[in-house]
Target: Aldehyde dehydrogenase
Amino acid sequence: MSATDTAASIEADATLTSVNPATGEVLATYPIDDEDAVRAAVAKARVAAATWGALTFAERKKHLLRWSSQLVAKSDELCELIHAENGKPLDDAFLELMLALEHIKWAASNAEKVLKPKKIAPGALMANFSAHLEQRPLGVVGIIGPWNYPVYTPNGSIAYALAAGNAVVFKPSEYSTGIGNFVAQCFAEANPELPDGVFNTINGYGATGAALVRAGVDKVAFTGSAATGKKIMASAADTLTPVLLECGGKDAVIVAADADIKAAADAVAWGATANSGQTCAGVERVYVDKSVADQFIAEVKRILTDVKPGSDAKASYGPMTMPSQIDIVRRHIEDALKNGGKAVLGGVESIKGPFIEPVIIVDADESSAAVTEETFGPTVTIKTVNGVDEAVQLANNSTFGLGSAVYSKKNGLEIARRLKVGATSVNSVLGFAAISGLPFGGSQDSGIGRIHGAPGLLEFSRPHSIAVQRFTIPGMALLSYSRTDSTMKLLRKVVPFLHGRHK
Ligand code: NAD
Model:
């Protein structure tokens, strides 16, 4: 079965082989979970959800923080596994883990504040009521993850769903199965007294993910490509299962005339190529003011000339994790060069086996694939523009709306506010992803809903509104056939007073 095969049926006794993308070495094989196994995992989670959901916020916090401590205790082993299975350098693996730990702590520590019952003002006409807004866990959340940040990215759903009182069934990407199972195993090791199934994994390709969507979960939280997100939403529609979709991006950076050019070039060089460019909110496009374009392009080129991929300790970034992505990167480079683009660093010759060296393409036509589609490789397009208005217009002219960045000493915040995206970093790239209290997510092809922050907790809970009639007001039985003419007469006097005085 191929990685992209999403056929409904799963071959009996099929296995999934995890391979080191840098060397081709086989790391492990895993049995693939078929439809029955997926349903069994959801049923187990449903039983565990009753126990986990009934705990207090403080108890869940204790269990989540124990999980963090176990991840820290096993961080060397986990980072080695991330390096081997995903290909990224060990330091990048540690940074990814560190950011995930920050989110686990934030979700565990803030769940009570965000989700605790709140009293709501009932309003003048319902003054004899008390009103309560209570957030309940959804039950079982099915989480389908990608491979590019195999710990950090799905954790944005896993930690927040758990903190909100849900059990989780997690299908890691077929390219990060070992890592996903390691993380779940750490939760179980840290919390042996909890029932099996609070956080469990299922393994397989797209067909296993598709089975999870159909398995009666209470929400599907998906991170991956827009194409898969659309299939998941269509399938989930059959049962009106709600979906959270964290999909791809085509993030733009605006470099204004008053930008700190060295800082902007440093950020663009890193944001475009770190993690081999396999970052959903990585830098893919740059719009730079013509007054500073030459200086900026020269500086990005200077930095990236010394940046090399590899799998040794000195490598700046690793191989392409998913071999099929290499063809997409090649197609985008070729298309950009055919459509007016000039390669100022690298070109198709930068693709060397599973490694791709940095590629900078200047002034490619805005209709070329390298500008319109997600490339997900260590390449960047840079376009010279006539001022901020043109930069904003071109940045917004995308089917994606995930992240973005602005470099300007004086007007960064104002420019940021004009961008149609879920998040913007001013005078930095990707800063928003490291601030746990800030929600993360996009619009259009970048998806639906938010992970992280208070909205990320609310995504995994269900509001329950409760109205309690504390006493009756004689003659004011509004919601009853015993309502009298005098009640209506009174209301006709009260309503203009309440709502009719604004000129
Ligand atoms: P993908 O869509 O190929 O796969 C993602 C997951 O979906 C995998 O686990 C896969 O097995 C599963 N899947 C595939 N077909 C399925 C189906 N029909 N039903 C259910 N599940 C199915 O994406 P990928 O290549 O793993 O990840 C890269 C993409 O993820 C990029 O587009 C990237 O931008 C995006 N991404 C987004 C974010 C974000 O937070 N917005 C974060 C990381 C990655």
Summary: The pocket of nicotinamide-adenine-dinucleotide is lined by residues 6, 144-149, 153, 171, 173-174, 205-206, 209-210, 213, 223-225, 228, 231-232, 246-249, 280, 322, 374, 376, 402, 447 (CB under 6 Å). Residues 90-115 form the longest helix (26 residues).
